[in-house]
Amino acid sequence: MQINGLQFINFSSNDYLGLANHPSIKQAVIESLQSDQTSYGAGAAHLVTGHHLEHHLAEDEIADWLGFEGALLFSTGYMANLAVQQALMQKGDVILADKLNHASLIDGAKLSDADLKRYPHLDMQALERRLQQTQQQNSQAMIVSDGVFSMDGDITPLAEMQALAKKYQAWLFIDDAHGIGTLGENGKGCFEHFGLEPDENTIVVGTLGKAFGTSGAFVAGSETAIETLIQFGRPYIYTTAMPQINAVAIRQALKLVQQAKASRETLKQNIEQFKQAARQIGLQLWPSDSAIQPILLGNSETALQWSESLKQDGFWVTAIRPPTVPKNQSRLRVTLSSAHSPEQIAELIKALKKLTDQAAL
Length: 361
Hints:
- There is one protein chain.
- Strand 1 and strand 2 form a beta hairpin.
- This protein folds into 2 domains: 116 residues, Aspartate Aminotransferase, domain 1; 236 residues, Aspartate Aminotransferase, domain 2, CATH 3.40.640.10.
- 44% of the residues lie in helices and 17% in strands.
- The model has no long low-confidence stretch (mean pLDDT 95).
- It is globular and about 55 Å long.
- Strands 4-10-9-8-7-5-6 form a 7-stranded mixed β-sheet, with helices on both faces. The chain has a 3-stranded antiparallel β-sheet with strand order 11-14-13. The chain has a two-stranded antiparallel ribbon with strand order 1-2.
- The protein is of the alpha/beta class.
- It has 14 helices and 14 strands.
């Protein structure tokens, strides 16, 4: 990418499959606009006159692909995460959330009238204790978690979580923003990655600005859940619908994601190349098998210095600092794409080795 006239290799993007600049998505948009069948703007909120055919088709195709009864488009993943908990959880209900959930999930829980209780990161024993307490109170529970955690890159233990949701008759709400498109043989995300099928009490949010390379998000779930969001989801009701031309791009991106087995395999190889090489030069990595590979550096000053040094060598790697991550856990957040070449990854490792050698002096 180019910033202020300087060229950088981008290792901070969520464009995991390299689709953000794909020619067939551009062509689909151009052809749709030239046909005079599609305007750019939606013109209104979905429930007024803003819901167009392309929105409807995109929702149906996403739901069919993932095996859900329905799906609903949102302009951003943040809005989707605000809507689900606010619409489905009421006073007297309990939201059980992973301690490291994304900010939008935390905000969505706080906007709900339900009680928010957090459990230690990935601790299924603590989650079950919370579920037992909720059952004793005769309260409805919703388990809320990232699928792939955006700052650490680790994956929630979904099989155990789904079993607990079934045992205690709880909603299971997974934000699979970083899993959709990248995980599973067909890119269906965390559920496919673990060989699981969602049930009628499962809700999944997927963002479309990451592996899909477009914009927006969807909520997928049962017909009851989707209809409830349409009627009571304030972030859905009280905003203009996304441009219908973006729905055209989403539909084309979905076709590409479905056909992207080779790209997902390349992404896996790139992740493994980076992890092996990073460990060989003594970098402290998080236990992540996803495209998100954090390098733990500790204090904010070191993270900023390393990020700036990498810029001088032509690499854009963002420093992540508190309050986004806990104190003394500042890091470089390396994100890999199938669009990266092995040579680019090797050059990044060389630049990182220069930094580790300097730190050892």
